[in-house]
From TrEMBL:
Region forming the signal peptide: 1-23
Family annotation (SUPFAM superfamilies): HAD-like
Top-level taxon in the UniProt lineage: Bacteria
GO cellular component term of the entry, any: cell outer membrane
GO molecular function, one term: metal ion binding
InterPro entries, A to Z: Acid_phosphat_B-like (IPR005519), HAD-like_sf (IPR036412), HAD_sf (IPR023214), Lipo_e_P4 (IPR006423)
Name of the protein: 5'-nucleotidase, lipoprotein e(P4) family
Record bears the keyword Signal: yes
Taxonomic lineage from the root: Bacteria, Pseudomonadati, Pseudomonadota, Gammaproteobacteria, Enterobacterales
Pfam families: Acid_phosphat_B
NCBIfam families: lipo_e_P4
Length: 269
């Protein structure tokens, strides 16, 4: 009897404690942000991240040199900006610390602060292309209202040829294909696309689910390293929204469920 009472009391204490624990569980929005911590740690701390970005730009340099020239068509390289040439991980870290979702207002404030760093190897690659007869086009989905701040940030970091002709920000759609076509129609031979998102290589995967995105990569696997150069970005991207239809319209709770359901797991020992 005595033991049973003790057991009951213990059970009540455990229940009470677990109740407390539940009260201190972060809400779903905070959990979404907290799931970025390891990706941010890797991005900001690991030598491996830097090694991959150098590997990407070293490969890009060889690919640029080896791309055949076309008579009368100057060689061009199209690069994305965010998480390709510019490191905005401090904005992502702020989201975690302040428990804020991504939104255009805070993103614009970050852009206006001009505190993005250069991705390792990006400035040297840009300078190499320009000093070897190529034209670099910076095609980004940053908003036009942030144009001056973006240009100032890039110039401070040492990117070459940053001007109205080469920096092409959002035209109202995040699909970059039309802007790529304009560059081609201006007479350029685009030999290389550099980006952290499959959309940086054309419209084929625009707003598509991850199965179609992976199919595109498998089908075009020979182009990676020769025409398409990919920078690693585990912080955000269309790979996340590619996990479910209308992912960006889901509630934080629903997003958490989609993320958990997407795990391919071993059955266990
Ligand atoms: Mg990007």
């Amino acid at each position: 009897m005595k033991n049973t009472s003790l057991y009951s009391i213990s059970a009540l204490v455990v229940l009470a404690l677990s109740g407390c624990a539940q009260q201190h569980q972060p809400d779903a929005a905070a959990q979404l942000n907290d799931q970025s911590v390891m990706a941010l740690n890797w991005f900001q701390q690991s030598g491996e991240y830097q090694a991959l970005t150098y590997q990407a730009f070293n490969t890009a340099t060889v690919a640029f040199d080896q791309a055949p020239s076309l008579t009368g068509k100057p060689k061009a390289v199209v690069v994305d900006l965010d998480e390709t040439m510019l490191d905005n991980s401090a904005y992502s870290a702020w989201q975690v610390k302040a428990n804020k979702p991504f939104d255009s207002k805070s993103w614009s404030a970050w852009t206006q602060a001009k505190q993005a760093n250069a991705v390792p190897g990006a400035v040297s690659f840009a300078q190499y292309v320009v000093s070897h007869g190529g034209t670099l086009f910076y095609v980004s989905n940053r908003d036009q209202k942030d144009y001056a701040a973006t240009v100032a940030n890039m110039q401070r970091l040492g990117f070459p040829n940053v001007n109205e002709k080469t920096v092409r920000l959002s035209t109202g759609t995040s699909n970059k294909q039309a802007r790529f076509d304009v560059i081609k129609n201006e007479g350029y031979n685009i030999v290389l696309y550099v980006g952290d998102n499959l959309n940086d290589f054309g419209a084929a995967t625009y707003h598509k689910g991850n199965q179609e995105r992976r199919d595109f990569v498998n089908k075009n696997h020979r182009l990676f390293g020769t025409q398409f150069i990919v920078l690693p970005n585990p912080l955000y991207g269309d790979w996340e929204s590619g996990m479910a239809a209308d992912y960006n319209k889901l509630t934080p709770e629903q997003k958490l469920r989609v993320r958990a359901a997407a795990l391919k797991s071993w059955g266990g020992a």
